[in-house]
Amino acid sequence: MGQGVALAALIGIIGCMSVARSVAVACQAGDRGPHRWYGEVVCAIALAGSILAFEWACVGPGLIYQAQEPSFLLDWHVEGQSLSYPGGINELAGRFLAHLMYVPWLGAIALTCLLLAVAVLARMIAVLSGHRPFLVLYWIPSIVLLALHCDYGYPLGMSLGVVWVMVGLVIYLQLGHLRPAVKVVAFCLIQCLIYYIAAGQAFVLAGCVSVYELSKGRVWLGLIPAGLAAGIPYLLASTVFIIHLPDAYLDGLVRFEGYQVGWLSWLLYGSLAGLILLSKLRLDPRMPIQAAIVVAGAIAAAFLGHDAEAKRILLVDYHAARRDWDGLLQVAGTKTVNPVYIQYQLNRALFHQGRLLDQMFAFAQYRGRSLFLKGQLCVLQPLAHSDIFMDLGLVNEAEHWAYEAAEIKGYTPRVISRLVEVNLLKGQSAMATKYLAMLSRTLWHSAAASRYARYIDDPDALRADPYLGPVARLMPSWDFLLAPDNPEFCLVELVKDPNNRMALEYYMAQCLLEGDLNGLARYLARFEQTGYTRIPRHIEEAMLIWLQIPGARVPLTRLEVSDRTIGRFNEFTQIMARHGGNRQAARRELMVYKDTYWFYWQYVLSEGKP
Amino acid sequence: MRIQTAIFIGIAYCLCGCLDRQPKDWVDAGRLPGVWPDYNDVTIPPNIAPLNFLVKEHGDRYYIQIRSTLGRPVEVCSRSGAIKIPIKQWRQLVQSNIGQDLSIEVYVQASDGRWQRFMPLVIHVASDPVDRYLVYRLIRPLFMYVGRMGLYQRDLTSFAERPILLNTATGGNCINCHAFHNYNPDRMILHMRAGKIGTYMLMAYDGQVFKVDTKTEFNHATSYRCWHPDGRTIAFAFNIVRQVFHARGQTRDVYDRASDLLVYDAIGHRASTSGQISSPRRMETYPEWSPDGRFLYLCSGPALEDVNGMPEPHKAMRYDLMRIPYEPQSRTFGQIEMVLNTSQMGLSAAHPKISPDGRYLLVCISDCTYFPLYRPESDLYLLDLSTGRFSKAENINSAQAEGYHCWSSNGRWVIFSSKREDGECTHLYLCYFDKDGHFHKPFLMPQQDPAYHSMQVVVYNLPEFLKAPIRMSPRALVRAAWSKRILKTTLDPTVASRLRQPVEDVPYTSLGTR
């Protein structure tokens, strides 16, 4: 995967295009009859096939779903609200389309169909604008869209908006033979309709119509649409819709459900106007420049739209959402220095694999931030924040962050599932039933709803569930207050439960990260009490530091620090001694101990680094 | 053409499932049918919308007949058990039988074709109508972040609901604490908190809308409010609110770090107060004027200093019900006095509301704090101000939280919010209060789709009755909300500057998104 694969796929696209073009040119054989049509069809099939392969293998529709986490319910009460403001229909359709990405092959087909529709509409616009059809140039808007979809956050509703705009434009161009007054009226109706469907993107339609009329030398017909398009949002926002006036103009055009439009979107809009102006260029359909432009666009699409780090974060999120710890470690474990979010999920995965206190310092740890999400990250990833509390059995706080996720992201299937889970665990069957009904109205999760529904009347089945059962057993039996700004404070309470192994390991990890060896020593005996067969490596390393303190005593009777750790500690201290205790001088030599707590102690804690 | 019409009508008739007439043969079930919402034995106003409901009995077909002593019975057939009563026929039947009972007979056909008849549900039609319009805020269960919310007006005689203001048009901020002067839609105030617009009041006053900044050198932005009967004075609370989250049981609680009251002149835009309602040694909140305007009722709890240091300070915060005499002419206060010493009972009072005739006071009582909807034990209590008799309001409480309530203008109806259905979502219940001072069994505010409340995660907040619909356009409110023209409140020069905290602590954070 990655850019290499993307490039390979692009080379595939280019190859297909070249072959298709050769076929088309061969078929043309100097005439413009049906052979040319065959050529275009072959070209279209080749391109669509390549796009499908690119979307499926390189972009990954599942990651688009993961990034956008759409909320879409088969429920008129909920989704019907989308009809009450301009652009709502498009948002709704976009969310539906985003839901199709949940099934990767279906998502890839849906995206390809979308891009194919854009290409067909672009060709119609080009033909209706008054010039000869040409082989591949009308694929440019689709290629730009493809590039936009390499950005996983790019809303599918924006792509659909482009389709609506192009449909509007095609309808308008079909009216070319009508009298100017009738055309103005028709434009007004089309513009109102497209504005209602796609909000601010309707300005692109007005812009294209103006360009078309001006290119035909009809100055007034070129200026009137611009004026009308400017007036329609004002009129509708003043009479029909409850909407802030600047939003009436800007929503859909420069932003879409929180997504800020970039230059590539403007290039897309520009390419629509460009299709109309192409007639002025009198291009030779056989000119190689066509293919060159499309190829250049495709390459630019791959390189400009691809963000490897963003994809890595999404992959981590994808595996974490499925509790696929092996997959997560495969993606996240390749680097020792990770973004905070990846490190947070990596630590979770290490715990679930039983490796947290053995391997956590093999990765750069963010002191105070890599065990729990904090600050803005909680807002960006509220459900991931909820996950850690589920792991710890702190169901109330998991519920809290599931509700925050519902406000921030909407009632997505994952959010609804979490709310079902917490209500089942808390024995709130009425709310659980309500959320189950909601879950059954999603496109793909009704089977999960049926599975959960059994638990309402059967608590034994709930306790036997491989995920919910352990959580139910870890729920605290006493109440205490939580500190949302300092979520790690909960560990001090949770560690009191001798059965809560995660609380113990996270508490210990927190002590290690903070250098709180007194806190660590307080619960050392728990390792023996809870059946650990050996002391985890980082704990051994911390114990050896602890034992340097005069009077320090390890409260363990059965477990002992391994000889290997003692040996490595001796080597470590000898290197330090050789450099007279000078950390900086010893650093190069100590790099082989980079995965130890001693290294963290010396170079992060002692130097006060984050 | 006639044939086509006949076919169309035939198809429509079949789709509606109304090929059935009243079953001729049946067996008596000998019990009441399972229905939701529970509308059996409730008392309804004669102008209420149809009480659509779900029959919770297994069956293939359902037949319902509603009848009374006068008028034509109403028949409804259904294949799903969702009973949607035709509004016109319902109105005719109810209007013909004011003061009488309606009887609802439910028949259910099993899969073997046999019909079962259940014992009839009985609905009492009161002679006192309810105010036609109701304003409430619709939100979802909130913790710290706010997504979408809106203020809506419902016509109780039908199912018509329209938005008054949506926060999608005001930068995604928190809209709250709406209040009207004496059921008058032309005088409204509401609070907008945080977000792109900032923290201000929106005040609609006889056709105009103002954006008001109620912050002064003395107080932060105001929130809980009550219009004085004179129509120009508003009592406000200004609070610094803190939410706390529990590891077990009820998820969250709210308490104040500071809270005081002031009165605001809506024409002169001047704030004033008395040391007795803004004491640094007490926390005063939830102001409520008596209908004659001569008393300001309030809830008063211990100052934070008194409970600070406790592991769970909110549990020690119990509010008493107090009142202070007010002289409208001179706009001066008398001496504050205790009305209900609830803290001594180990309880806490919130949302005092006085009946329009001034005789009764309905108040929320919970174990602690002043946010009853977060306290499952919260119940409504009735205080007879003429006799001093104080008791739990009969018939209307449940095992879950009962919260904000409002008296109708004729004093015969109360609407209150309750979490009784599921413990999380707040729904609105209408309850008849008869001339003898007794509450009748409350009923859930009817919805066109009877399954609506059981399927949707919505929270109905702050129901307020209105005598007429709001004429102010939502767009005028949006314009005012974004307006740069802000009426700045001045502080009465006799009130000393005493701003405690430099910044406001907001309980809910705006996401600022659509």
Task: Describe what you observe in this structure.
The complex is a heterodimer of chains A (610) and B (514). Chain A is an all-alpha fold. Chain A is 69% helix and 1% strand. Chain A has a two-stranded antiparallel sheet. In chain A, helix 7 (140-149) packs parallel to helix 14 (288-305), helix 9 packs across helix 11 and helix 15 runs parallel beside helix 17. The radius of gyration of chain A is 30 Å and the shape is elongated. In chain B, strands 1, 3, 5, 6, 8, 9 and 10 form a seven-stranded mixed beta sheet that branches. Chain B has a five-stranded mixed beta sheet with strand order 15-16-17-18-37, covered by helices on one side. In chain B, a hairpin with a 6-residue loop joins strand 16 (184-193) and strand 17 (200-205). With 514 residues, chain B is mostly beta strands. The radius of gyration of chain B is 25 Å and the shape is globular. The model of chain B is unreliable at 500-506 (pLDDT under 50). Chains A and B meet through helix 11, helix 21, helix 23 and strand 3 of A and strand 12, strand 14, strand 20, helix 4 and helix 5 of B.
**Which residues of chain A sit in consecutive blocks of at least 5 with pLDDT less than 50?**
1-5
Query: How far apart are the termini of chain B?
Result: 49 Å
Silhouette of chain B: globular
Mean pLDDT of chain A: 88
Task: Estimate the helix proportion of chain A, in percent.
Answer: 55-70%
Q: How big is the Rg of chain B?
A: 25 Å
Structural class of chain A: mainly alpha
Largest sheet of chain A: 2 strands, antiparallel
Widest β-sheet, arrangement of strands of chain A: 1-2
What is the strand tally of chain B? 39
Overall tally of structural domains of chain B: 2
CATH architecture of the largest domain in chain B: 6 Propeller
Number of contiguous helices of chain B: 5
Helix content of chain B: under 10%
Largest β sheet strand count, sense and barrel closure of chain B: 7 strands, mixed
Tell me the name of the CATH class of the largest domain in chain B: Mainly Beta
Compute the number of strand runs of chain A.
Answer: 3
